[in-house]
Every structure is written in C-alpha cells, then in structure tokens.
C-alpha cells in the first residue's frame, strides 16, 4: 500500500482539494478539507525531521476528523456546517472547559482552521516576496500574526526554532513542484483567495455559534 504522507508534494493538488471542498451553497466538505491538509503534510514531511512534531499533530487532527467521517455518524460529518449542527444539537462539544469530549470534531477542526489563517498569510508573503527574502522570516511573521496567540510558550519556541530550518526561497519554490518561479507566483495568486474564502466561511460559522474559543 502506498503511504500517501510520503508521496511527493504538489501545490496544484493541494489547491484542487481546497477548491473541491466548497459546495455550490458554500458548504465545506470535510473530506476534501482534510485531503488538502494531508497534501500539505506531504510537503512538511519532505522538509525533514525538524518539522516532525508539527506534522504529527496535523496528521492526528486529520485522522480524528476522518474517523468521524467513517463512523456510523459519518453523514453528519460530511460538511463543516452539518458537523457543527450535529455536535451542538447532541451536546457533543466541550464548550467552556475540557470535559468528556476533548476531541470533538468542532474543536479539532478549529485547530486546523486557525492554521489555515497562518497558511494564507504565509503564502501571501511568499507570493509577494523578492528572491532574497527569507522564508523563515515570512513564516515567523505569519505565525506571530495568527497561530502563535493560541499556542503555549513551549510550542512557540519549538515552532520558532523549526522555522530556521526552512529552505531558502528558490529551494522552497522547487519543492512546490509547480514549475518556474513565475508559475509558482501565479498559482499562489489563485491559492491565497481560495484559502481565504474557505477560512472566512468557517470563521463566520464558528463566530455565529460562539465556537471560536473551544478548549
Ligand atoms: C513550512 C513550515 C511549517 C510551519 C507550520 C506552522 C505552524 C506551526 C505550528 C506548530 C504546531 C505544533 C504542534 C502542536 C500544536 C498543538 O498544540 C496545536 C493545538 O492543538 P491542541 O490539540 O493541543 O489544542 N495544534 C495546532 O495548532 C494545529 C497545527 C497544525 C499545523 C499544520 C501545519 C501543516 C503544514 C503544512 C506545511 C505548509 C507549507 C506551506 C507552503 C506550502 C505551499 C502551499
């Protein structure tokens, strides 16, 4: 069996997953959302063991969601909207503090949702960067503006160290497996607004149901 996490990363493929996660009614299909993250994990794995702790967490979060999808309640987990409704209606979410549902779909997806904001900010910086700009700085700035506020001191320190291990911009573009730097910039120009749309839909839904601070 092929281990999909070890296959070669392709930015285009990730983009396709995030594109297909939006239904015509702007619902978000969890299956495609997860497959977008799994594609990103492939890239992370190709960057070396320094990023292992991040990749491990991302894999575990995607696995939790896939397990819900495959469970007998699977149909309720088809979209983010149906998951939120199902888990709230059936009181399957720890709302104020951790209790009996430490791994609800809602809180798990919220972690990936916050990471999506980081990704969008990072890719936008990458898109508008110049050849000599440092990927570690772009990544750190995007992280500080988004995910960092949700992380403990220890995780912030570990993430900060890992960022120094990022490849330089030309090598990073190479890893994306898209083509020339111009083509990468072009694909990034399509990726960023798409990620933003998916992010925004989830953000509004979570806001509406007061789910943005789930423990
Ligand atoms: C390329 C560099 C990657 C840098 C990733 C930046 C994010 C740093 C995140 C550090 C996470 C540390 C591990 C554990 C965190 C958890 O405590 C936290 C909260 O969960 P919980 O259960 O404890 O409440 N988890 C999270 O915040 C989720 C983090 C998921 C991060 C997923 C990152 C996947 C990365 C993909 C590589 C993207 C490469 C970008 C360029 C590709 C071009 C399209």
TrEMBL record:
Topology relative to the membrane: Peripheral membrane protein
Source domain of life: Eukaryota
Keyword Cell membrane annotated: yes
One of the protein's GO biological processes: negative regulation of interleukin-1 beta production
Keyword Cell membrane: yes
Family matches, as InterPro entries: GLTP_sf (IPR036497), Glycolipid_transfer_prot_dom (IPR014830)
Family membership: Belongs to the GLTP family.
Name of the protein in its database record: Ceramide-1-phosphate transfer protein
Source species taxonomy: Eukaryota, Metazoa, Chordata, Craniata, Vertebrata
């Amino acid at each position: 069996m092929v281990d999909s996490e070890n296959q070669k990363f392709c930015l285009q493929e990730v983009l396709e997953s995030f594109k297909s996660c939006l239904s015509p009614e702007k619902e978000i299909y969890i299956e495609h959302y997860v497959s977008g993250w799994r594609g990103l994990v492939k890239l992370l794995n190709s960057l070396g063991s320094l990023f292992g702790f991040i990749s491990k967490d991302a894999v575990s979060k995607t696995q939790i969601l896939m397990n819900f999808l495959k469970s007998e309640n699977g149909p309720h987990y088809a979209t983010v909207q149906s998951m939120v409704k199902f888990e709230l209606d059936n009181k399957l979410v720890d709302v104020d503090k951790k209790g009996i549902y430490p791994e609800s779909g809602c809180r798990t997806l919220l972690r990936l949702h916050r990471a999506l904001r980081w990704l969008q900010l990072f890719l936008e910086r990458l898109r508008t960067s110049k050849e000599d700009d440092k990927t570690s700085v772009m990544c750190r700035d995007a992280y500080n503006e988004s995910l960092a506020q949700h992380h403990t001191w220890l995780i912030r320190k570990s993430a900060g160290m890992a960022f120094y291990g990022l490849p330089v911009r030309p090598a990073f573009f190479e890893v994306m497996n898209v083509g020339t730097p111009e083509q990468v910039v072009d694909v990034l120009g399509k990726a960023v607004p798409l990620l933003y749309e998916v992010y925004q839909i989830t953000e509004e839904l979570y806001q509406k149901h007061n789910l943005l601070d789930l423990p």
